[in-house]
Amino acid sequence: MIDLKRALLLLLHASMLVLSGSSQGVAQGKEPKPNVLIILTDDQGWGDLGSHGNKLLETPHLDGLAKISTELERFYVSPVCAPSRASLLTGRYNLRTGTSWVTHRKEVMRSREVTIAELLGSHNYRTGYYGKWHNGQQYPTDPIGQGFERFFGFKEGHLNNYFNTSLTSGFQEVETSGYVPDLLADSAISFIRKEAPFFCYLAFNTPHSPFQVPEAYFRKYKAKGLDDRNAAVYAMVENIDMNVGRVLRALRESGKEEETILIFLSDNGPNGRRYNGGLKGIKGYVDEGGVRVPFFIRYPAGGIESGRVSRQFGAHIDILPTIAELTGIKVPDSLQIDGRSLLPIIKGKGVAYPGRAFYTHHVDREFDAIPGAVRTHQYLLTLMPEDTSFYDLLKDPSQEHDLADRHPELVREYIRKYRAWFGEVTGMGVEPPLVQLGDSPAPLTWLPAPEASIYGRVDFKGGEGWANDWLVNWIGPADSAVWEVVAKRPGQYRVSVQLSSEKPLVIALELDGKTHYTKIESPQQAVQVPNRDRVPRGEVEEMRWPEVTLATVQIPAGVHRLKISPAGEVEGELAIKALKLTTL
């Protein structure tokens, strides 16, 4: 039976054929489709631009882009990475997509969501994704499964090294040489130089930690008197600026500049305390400083004005409907888009959507209804576990004056709005989808440690279980990790484990009540990869992990639990990084 998402994409493609007609349409002088280029940065705050008043940071290319674009000064995203990315791709609030946080599969976007790539791909666009994904590691929740023909980058929430590291090309892991943001820009430039129309999504991994940057950039900001952390952050942003300049130059040289819709933004507020234009809060906060980011849009052939600045607000959920309107593609009502086209705002038609509210939710490790926020053109309500605040953003953008006591009726009204919204967008639940087997064009399915349920004394090496973490504190058989998967059809798999052990041991792999025992005869040692950190990292180190085959198993269709544990008491230290399932 054909699934709902595939049926919808077929319908989109059929509608494209009807609208475009035969090949005679080109002969009759139909306008070419515009290209689409989205550039997204990671943890770059509103204040991390020279054009936003930052006196220390040098961003000439981005400042120049602002002058030839329309800027929305009040543009909002989510407080952290993965939710913003899900909303940007789908035009829907992240909680509708299943994405609620940044790790433990809470970052995964449901595969049935229809993305910008799938929308444009159904209208004969080439689609390429370059950089950080962070909405699902396994097919069909990875970039290829969500509509991108080309992918080069990484699927986790962050990399552990930015120099000479492993990246993913399509489904293959490749070793790279150089600084990752430069490599991503190289690949994006190669993609946009080819035939039109294209949709290119360039998602830089910086200035997210770990704080690694080439020496020349770093020395420049140390010479300005900054501490090592902020010197590294500003150096990383200037490197982004340089690469944006390269991309803009490639657009011009390829003759595609006028016919390209270019959007630049960041995914959340700054990852630390630094200049942010007087805004309250940083990454992880529902206040202005946590969710207000730079946003430029440029499309010369579409009549978007250069140098215009709007004080109306827009949000990540508005990007898909805006692109759809600019490309002339109808968005089916069945997609239930939350966003609205930004064109009325960009064209300066007064207050485009009077009475519109934008909602923000944040998970602070454990899922709850709050922290949350409601924004309108004038007001902001923030809901925290021990505090409710109300601000007039037109008069007080820095949130210095809490007006909750002066406007109790408005506060109650906004709370009612928020509760109604939260109930609606969580109506399908927020439980992460299971890892899916049996439908991937790739032979390997990766089950990393942060996606496991852990029992006994097992814990994460880094404490939180961020991306790339591994499991430690294995003492005996009562300590285990469990990955739950769903197989769409029966299949045979080789199961292997990435681990490090000081002593020989026996590993037990349990599947459907049957246990497979593997004796590891000799110590296995993970080796740390040297890093180029500028400050002590909060992430775990990058390691090279030994891999041991545990069993060949037949997995029937349905839901299954793969459980791994020591078969006896553990001597010395044991660390487990991931299970790997290879289709046979």
Task: Name a few traits of the molecule.
alpha+beta, 584 residues, globular, Jelly Rolls, single chain, Arylsulfatase, C-terminal domain
Describe this structure in words.
With 584 residues, the chain is an alpha+beta fold. It folds into 3 domains: 31-353, Alkaline Phosphatase, subunit A, CATH 3.40.720.10; 361-425, Arylsulfatase, C-terminal domain (2-Layer Sandwich), CATH 3.30.1120; 435-583, Jelly Rolls (Sandwich), CATH 2.60.120.260. 22% of the residues lie in helices and 28% in strands. The protein contains 13 helices and 29 strands. Strands 1, 2, 3, 4, 5, 6, 7, 8, 9, 10 and 11 form an 11-stranded mixed β-sheet that branches. Strands 16, 18, 21, 23, 24 and 28 form a 6-stranded mixed β-sheet that branches. A 4-stranded antiparallel β-sheet has the order 12-13-14-15, covered by helices on one side. The two termini are 25 Å apart. The model is unreliable at 17-29 (pLDDT under 50).
Give the biggest sheet.
11 strands, mixed
**In the CATH classification, which architecture of the largest domain applies?**
3-Layer(aba) Sandwich
In DSSP terms, counting alpha (H) and pi (I) runs of 4 or more, how many helices? 13
**Oligomer classification:** single chain
Topology:
Blueprint: H1 4-20, H2 24-27, E1 35-42, H3 60-67, E2 70-76, H4 81-90, H5 94-97, H6 116-121, E3 126-132, E4 150-154, E5 166-169, E6 172-175, H7 180-192, E7 198-207, H8 215-222, H9 228-253, E8 260-266, H10 288-291, E9 292-293, E10 295-298, E11 308-315, H11 319-327, H12 343-346, E12 358-361, E13 372-375, E14 379-384, E15 387-392, H13 408-425, E16 435-437, E17 444-448, E18 453-455, E19 459-460, E20 471-472, E21 480-487, E22 491-501, E23 505-511, E24 514-520, E25 527-528, E26 543-544, E27 547-555, E28 558-566, E29 574-583
Parallel strand pairs: 1-7, 1-8, 2-11, 3-4, 3-7, 16-21
Antiparallel strand pairs: 2-9, 2-10, 4-5, 5-6, 8-10, 12-13, 13-14, 14-15, 17-29, 18-21, 19-20, 21-28, 22-27, 22-29, 23-24, 23-28, 25-26
